[in-house]
Structures are given as structure tokens and as C-alpha cells.
Amino acid sequence: MSENWADYVPRLEELARRLGLDWSPVTFEAVPDSFMTEIAVYGLPVRMPHWSFGARYIYQLVQRHMGYSRLFEVVFPGNPGHAYLASSNGLADNILVTAHVLGHADFSRNNLLFRRCQEQVSEHIVEHAASHARQIERDIESHGTAAVEQVLDAALSLEQYVDVDQPLRRERYPEYLEKPVPPVDDEFRARYVALDAAAESAWQPRKQRAPVPPHPERDLLWFIATYAPEMESWERDIFLAVREESFYFYPVYATQIMNEGWASYWHARLLREADFVPQAAYVDAIKCHSDVVRPIAAGEQVALSVNPYHLGFTLWEQIFKEAGLPTARAAMRQDDDFSFVRNHLTRELASQMGLFQYRRQDNGQVRVQAEDIDELRESLLIDKYNFGAPRVSVAEMRNDGTLVLEHQSRIDGRGLEVERARHVLEYVQRVWRRPVRVQTVDAALQTLQLAAGDS
Ligand SMILES: [Zn+2]
């Protein structure tokens, strides 16, 4: 029996195909642990350089593990997809990771949100991101590190502010208000107009400029790149590059529970049915699997966050058991985490999983009370809205170029972290080059005006 994990890839793929999985080709590559850490931190194998990626180090280090196991998972959906395995992993680890990656590859090829975003961004994001990084290196040569960093500070501080319901390549807003509906086109009026040229101009009022934006605009990256009064074209390109990468990351974010659950369901199922895996490796892999889908981290006294692997895995197991493969695949195609949790997390299941104890109070404490399933579902989802960021839109661009942002605190029900918001405003003001303001509420929900660049 072979001890090389790569020999198991084609056999796992064949089994997966037989069980109905359908994916674009994936390249598997074993890389040193240090490289794994680096790509986990940057989010992509080669990405634009920026100090904030260093600040994400700890967070990503925890997040990119498979659930609460020690295994890293790093897979980039696309066509082909790219999967990286830590070369320090044992045979059983890598068999598990390979099976898990096939589940992700099936998910990202078939889930509609993934498809829509990938069709717009291109299926070659890894290559795209690398070309963004090269462009930024050229920018640094031409304009200097400080100038480029300033633009990246601003763009990356707004990376969650995209609107994936709009196309990636958007047109500017119409410049003029639509003409008023022309008067009734009857014969009498036609003759009357023909008789009097002055009357004609009265019937066709001069064109009126439309306000910018015509409605609250959520895509701050696009708006600033498109309407900033004095931004240079290389600066706009950086904003649009960051925006494109956000379009790529959004589906990963918005389907995390169902996607990790799906991959975990399939790695468990493939392992169970893979009679070619040696017994010892099988036992090790199953042990690893139970770490991945453990409800809470060992040693944590109070778990305030649910392990998405555990939640997703349990929901998918139930769906497969009750409704079968075709129904499960239909849900996988259509849902995102919001509809998935609302449609499939039943009261019974939540109570079985002990989820009711996770409900948080405003002060962050856990409480156990009457088991309200709707409230539980929403408390699992609330942090996921709007890419996990407070909902801030462009409200107005004034004649003097002042940019007025508005935090819709009533929609997202949370305050801004004032210090962070001040930093972001300063970053944005440096590229907008005119005053920038935001109306918001603080943590205590008191109304607050922040401004940068006012004379
Ligand atoms: Zn995964």
C-alpha cells in the first residue's frame, strides 16, 4: 500500500465522481508550513503587499484551520482550483484534506453565488491577484512606497464595501434626470406647437442634472474610484483591483457555514466509502474529522462562537438523511448561509446541538432561555450581514466635492468603532482630496458626526 498521499488523489477523485460530485480540475500541491501560513494571511498566494496583512496574521492563523483541528486548509476555487497541503501533514491528514477539497470544489462550481461572482471576476483569480500585485510593484517604482501605501490603506480599509448585487463592471450613473413624460401627443397640440416656437421650448424644459449618487450607494470602492474629483488613474486602478478581489472573497464569506459543512460531509463520506485507504490511516483520519467538526474548541470555558464546520456538517447530515442527494444538491446550488440556516436549522436540531446556550446578550454574555428558534437563527447570522461590516453608504456628493457618508445604524443595529472609523475617514480623505464626513452612532447608539479634511 502506498504511503504517498498524491497516489490517493486520483482514487478519491474517481470515488467522488461516482458519488455525484462535479467539479473543475484542482491542482494539489504540498508546500512548506511557512508558505501555508503566508498564503493564509494574504488570502491569495501572491497578493498586493500591505502592512495590514501582517495585522491579520493571528486572526487568519486561527480561521484558516479546519474547524478546531490543527489542519490548515487552503484552497482557491477557480478553474482550475488550487489546493495547498502542508508537507508536514501525515498520510491520513492529507487524505482527509484531499477529500475535503473535492467537496469545496464541487460546491464552488455549482453554488449560484459562487458562479455569479466567478463569472464576473474570472475563474483565474489567483493569476489576476498576482497581476494586481505586479501592477502595484510598478506603481511603487513610479510613485514611491508612501504614495502607494496611502492608496492601499484607503482601499483595503473599505474592502468589505462592495455591492455584489451590482455587476463588477458598472457604468456611471445617468448624468441627467429622465425627461418628464412628454405631453399628450394629439393632433391639436402638434399643430399648436408648430405654430409657436416659444411654446415648444416650454414643453421641453432644459435637462436637469441628476444628484450623485441618485440613491444611497453601498459600493464605496466603486463610487470613490468613479467619482473622486482628483484621483489619478493608477490610484483608481488600485481601488478597482481591491474591489475585484472582494467580489472573489464574498461568496467564500457568505456561504462559509454551508460550504465548510458540505466539504466536511463529503470528506467523511468519501473516507467511509474509500476501501482503498489503509485501516491505520482511516482511523487517524476519522479522529482528525471529529476534531474538525467538534462543536466547541477544547479548553474554552464559554464558547461564544459556533464552529461553522460543526453547524454546517450537522445540517447537511440531516438533509441527506431526510431528503436525499438531489434535494441536498438543490439546496447547495441555491442557498447562501442566510437561507441555509433559516431553511434547515430546526428547533429540534438546534436543541440537539445545544445551540440555544450560544445566544448572546448585548453585553456579550451567554444566556439560556426560552428556546426561540427564529431568534437563535438571527443571532447566528447577524454578524454576517453586509460582509460583516457596518452598513455605510454614500449619501451625497456636494457641489464643493464634499463626500457625505451615512451609517445606516438602524438597519444593521450596531455602532461604529469610533477610533477605527476616524482612521478610515482619514485614509479616504487623502484619496478623495476633499472633505469627507460620516453620520453615525457610537457604541452607545448616540448620534455622532465624524469629519476629515474640513478647513
Ligand atoms: Zn474547508
**Overall outline:** globular
**Total DSSP helices:** 20
What's the SSE pattern? HEHHHEEHHHHHHHHHHHHHHEEHHEE
The level of helicity is 40-55%
Radius of gyration, taken over Cα atoms and rounded to an integer in Å? 26 Å
Q: Which structural class do the helices and strands define?
A: alpha/beta
Beta-strand share of residues: 5-15%
Instruction: Tell me about the largest β-sheet.
Output: 4 strands, mixed
- Extract low-pLDDT stretches: 54-63, 297-303
Strand order of the largest sheet: 4-5-6-7
Termini separation: 75 Å
Number of β-strand runs:
7
Small-molecule binders:
zinc ion
On the 0 to 100 scale, the average pLDDT is 84
Your description of this structure?
By secondary structure, the protein is an alpha/beta fold. Among the domains are: 5-111 and 255-344, no CATH class; 176-209, no CATH class; 387-452, no CATH class. It is 53% helix and 8% strand. It is built from 20 helices and 7 strands. The protein has helices at residues 8-18, 33-42, 51-55, 57-63, 91-110, 112-121, 125-143, 145-157, 187-195, 197-203, 220-227, 233-254, 256-273, 279-292, 308-334, 337-344, 347-352, 373-381, 409-412, 418-432; strands at 26-31, 74-76, 81-86, 392-397, 403-407, 436-441, 447-452. A hairpin with a 5-residue loop joins strand 4 (392-397) and strand 5 (403-407). Helix 1 (8-18) packs across helix 5 and helix 7 (125-143) packs across helix 8. The longest helix has 27 residues, at 308-334. The radius of gyration is 26 Å and the shape is globular. The relative contact order is 0.11. The model is unreliable at 54-63 and 297-303 (pLDDT under 50). The structure holds zinc ion.
